[in-house]
Structures are given as structure tokens and as C-alpha cells.
Write a structure and sequence with these properties.
The chain is mainly alpha-helical and about 200 residues long. It has one domain. It is built from eight helices and five strands; from the N terminus they run αβαββαβαβαααα. The N and C termini lie far apart (about 40 Å).
Amino acid sequence: MAGITSKDLLMLLLYVPGATGKRGEPIYGRTLLQKIVFLFSQEVFPKFKKDAMMAEEDIPLFDPDRFGPFSKRVLDDIEFLVNLGFVERQTVSSEAATAEEASEYEAWSVDSRAAGYAEGAGFEEYRKESLALSELGCRFVEERLLKKVSDNQLRALEMLKRNCTRVSLQEVLHYVYSKYPNYTSRSEIRDKILSRRRRV
């Protein structure tokens, strides 16, 4: 049986319960999504290599960026799933958007335009958003993806999502910056993040 792709991974992460314990719990903000996928690549995927959950080439690659580990592929995959109708996004509020989220989105937009994406294809001013599976996306996960992962793998994804959604974004960033300093070498906010006391 074929493994899951990077897009499938995003859908599974949106499907499993998080801090609320409810299936299909949204993930708030692209920065948080980026860091969840990064932590999957570092801490969850290595445990599942032998089970062929995903091929190595399907794991999004992360590079040190201005706001820590960043993968353009994650944002491209979300745009693809939104356009396909599998993922819905809703604006939460402009005030809730952090500087990190706005800047990551801006960097992705510039790169995407350079790669030939059409102007106006989602390049409006950034707003904090929730990302959640649509009904169509839920059906796809239940009918096509759940059979590709084991119960243990689902539980691991659920634990990852729960751990990352029960605390603030700043606490997730502090964990990532503290544990993976090699991915923060280009960060403009490294000192600011690490100076905050971690509460988890």
C-alpha cells in the first residue's frame, strides 16, 4: 500500500483531535502549522520509517529562516488543499496575527510570485486564520487516508497536535528554538523567543 504524501499529512493533522479532544479541531495560524509539521519531521517520522508511513522524499524540507525552521512546501500544500476544497480557512482577526506569522506569509508570497504564481492568488494582506478540514476533506481522510496509517501512528499524530495546541504559539516557538538551534541560525527573533520563560 502506498504511503501518505505531504498533503495527506496536513489533512491527517487537521483531522485528529488536538487540545479540545474534538476530531477535526482547526489549527490556528500558518506559523503553528509550520512548526507542527517541523516537529513531525524531527520527532515523529523517524519512529515510523520502518512502517513506510511516508517516503523520505515526501517529508517537507525545512531550512533556517528569518523566523526559525520554514518550509515553503507546507504553505504551497495548504494553498493546494484550499483550492481543491479539502481545507477551509477563516479569518480570526487581524489583531491576533503575530509578527512571525505575517512575515512568514510575506516571504512565502514573494517566493511564490517569483516562481510564477498568478498575482492575486491568495496574496492579500495577511490575517490570522483558522485552518480546518471541509466536509469533503473529512470524507477523503476517512475513506482514503485512515487505512494507510496504523492506530499507533494516529495516536502519535494526535499527541503531537495536542501538545502543540494546548499551549501558546510563543511556547511552541520556545521549544523549537531551544531544542533545534541549528534551524534558528538566521532567525531575527531568536533572542526574543529564547529570553521568554518556558511554561510547559
